[in-house]
Each structure stands twice: as structure tokens, then as C-alpha cells.
């Protein structure tokens, strides 16, 4: 005579590769415990029959739609154009004050040297800014959230920057330049000050356009732009291409790229990351493998055709 006692139990199933891990998944199983009263049956070990039940896999998150050439996010709006116009106006006022002040004072060398310093500093500033938004914060970060999200998406679809319209690409920096340079235009008349201001602010505002040219193909770029890239006055296509390889932690500067070699060879940004980690406990994104959302997708012919 035998009696069967069905019970539902949960047994932890772990593969040998996961031995020692703290967490493991539990699978529901239907267990039958059979026991007999006959002598022959007593000689056998109790038998456990495990019937695993398949679990419903979690839903797969939908991948964001690939951008297209007609994507509204790539188009310029009138507010974009207004900010670019205001930014250019403040820079031109600074240039005019530099030129007129130099003419009246017969002083040319100092404003030129100040402009050269502004040009070099703008490249460094673009690298520090690029490093910061690539590695820290997210879309919810105050002030910089939209730019952080845009730069992270740029790693997945880098070619979109060449499809982005001019004012759309520059308006965020143009707005910052407007609020920064306008007070300087009103307060200072020194040609040396404005020699620095107009060059530095102009390079910062147009750095996103230099960035876009660094993603362009040589045959489609204006000959003057190609010449400036080859001369090292604008960030080159080959130099910036090195940035678009995981973990995206080098060649951050996008004005001329003159600082990239020094910053990368001396591990300046890695040192800053260590300081922030030990002081604030914040890890940069470049320390982790990029998620699938960061892996670059190649432009397809359908995305280059206007319908």
C-alpha cells in the first residue's frame, strides 16, 4: 500500500557557475513524495519528482526609434535662431570694441596675444565641459540635463550631428554666451579684455559646429574647413573619431583639439575622476562598460534620403 502526498515547494536552482553568489533565483516546482509500506519498497530510497514550471520572462524594453533626417528634434526653431543671433551680436560687439580700442591706442600685439590665449583656453574649456556631461548627471540634472541626454544619445547616433540644423546645434551655447558676454560688453572698453573675450566666447559658441564638421566626410566639407582641420586649427576628423570608441574617455576637446594629447597622456581627467570618487563617491560613466543604448549604430541609406 502506498500513499502520495503532493506538495508545492520552492527549490533554489543554481548553476555551478553561480556557486558562491549571494543572490539566486527561485523556481516553483510541484513535488511528489511517495512512501510505501511494503518491505521491497522500503529498500528503495525515497523518490523526489521535480516538475519545473516555466516562468514568464520580463518584458523587453522597447529600443528608442532611430532618428531620421526629418526628425523635428534636428530642426531649427525661431527661438533657436533668436538665441544664435543674440550670441553672435554680443561677440561682434566685443570684436568691434577690441578693434576700435586697438586703433585708438595703437596697441595691437597685446589684443592679439589675448585672443590667442582665449582660443587655447576655449579648447580646454570645451574638453572639460564635454568630459563633465559625458560622465556625470542624467536627463533630470538641473540646467544641463537636456545637453547630458543629447551627448549620450550622440554616442549611439553620432552621425545625427551632421543632420542637425545650424541654429538647433548652436542655440544652447549661444544662450550662455549671450548672458556672459553682454555684461562684459557693457562694462569694459579695454581692447585687451575684448581681444580675449570675443575669441574665447566665439570659439565656445561655435564649438558645436566644429564638432559637427569633425563628423563630416571630407568630400562634403567646405575646402576651407578641411584646410583648417588639416592645419590643426580646428579639431580633425581622425582625432575626434578616437573619442567614439568605448569607453569614450579620451579626446574630449572639440575646438582645435590641441589639448587632447596632453590631457590624455597625463591622465588629467582620470585624476579628476578619482578625486570626485573619493571625495563624493560618484563614479563616472567611463568606468563602466557602456550599455547597449550607447553602442554606436551605423547610418543607413534610408536615413540619408529626403522623402
UniProtKB/TrEMBL annotation:
GO terms for cellular component: membrane. This is Lipid desaturase domain-containing protein. Belongs to the fatty acid desaturase CarF family. The keyword RNA-binding does not apply. InterPro entries: Chloroplast_FAD_CarF, Lipid_desat. It is found in: Membrane. Residues 119-287 form the Lipid desaturase domain. Keywords: Membrane, Transmembrane, Transmembrane helix. The keyword Zinc does not apply. It is a multi-pass membrane protein. Signal peptide: none annotated. It comes from Vitis rotundifolia (Muscadine grape). Residues 42-68 are annotated as: Disordered.
Amino acid at each position: 500500500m502506498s500513499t502520495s502526498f503532493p506538495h508545492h515547494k520552492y527549490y533554489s536552482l543554481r548553476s555551478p557557475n553561480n556557486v558562491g553568489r549571494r543572490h539566486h533565483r527561485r523556481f516553483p516546482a510541484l513535488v511528489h513524495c511517495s512512501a510505501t509500506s511494503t518491505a521491497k519498497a522500503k529498500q528503495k530510497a525515497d523518490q523526489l519528482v521535480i516538475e519545473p514550471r516555466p516562468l514568464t520572462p520580463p518584458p523587453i524594453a522597447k529600443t528608442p526609434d532611430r532618428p531620421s533626417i526629418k526628425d523635428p528634434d534636428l530642426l531649427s526653431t525661431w527661438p533657436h535662431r533668436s538665441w544664435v543671433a543674440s550670441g553672435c551680436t554680443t561677440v561682434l560687439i566685443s570684436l568691434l570694441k577690441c578693434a576700435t580700442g586697438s586703433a585708438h591706442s595703437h596697441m595691437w600685439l597685446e589684443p592679439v596675444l589675448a585672443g590667442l590665449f582665449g582660443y587655447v583656453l576655449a579648447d580646454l574649456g570645451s574638453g572639460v565641459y564635454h568630459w563633465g556631461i559625458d560622465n556625470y548627471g542624467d536627463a533630470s540634472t538641473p540646467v544641463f540635463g537636456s545637453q547630458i541626454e543629447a551627448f549620450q544619445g550622440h554616442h549611439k547616433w553620432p552621425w545625427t550631428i551632421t543632420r542637425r540644423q545650424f541654429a538647433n546645434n548652436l542655440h544652447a551655447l549661444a544662450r550662455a554666451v549671450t548672458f556672459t558676454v553682454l555684461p562684459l560688453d557693457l562694462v569694459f572698453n579695454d581692447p585687451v579684455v575684448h581681444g580675449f573675450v570675443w575669441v574665447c566666447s566665439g570659439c565656445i559658441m561655435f564649438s558645436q559646429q566644429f564638432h559637427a564638421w569633425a563628423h563630416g566626410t571630407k568630400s562634403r566639407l567646405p575646402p576651407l574647413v578641411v584646410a583648417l582641420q588639416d592645419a590643426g586649427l580646428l579639431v580633425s576628423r581622425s582625432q575626434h573619431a578616437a573619442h567614439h570608441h568605448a569607453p569614450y574617455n579620451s579626446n574630449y576637446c572639440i575646438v582645435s583639439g590641441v589639448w587632447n594629447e596632453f590631457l590624455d597622456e597625463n591622465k588629467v581627467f582620470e585624476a579628476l575622476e578619482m578625486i570626485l570618487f573619493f571625495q563624493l563617491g560618484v563614479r563616472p560613466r567611463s568606468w563602466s562598460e557602456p550599455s547597449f543604448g550607447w553602442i554606436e549604430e551605423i547610418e543607413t541609406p534610408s536615413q540619408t534620403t529626403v522623402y
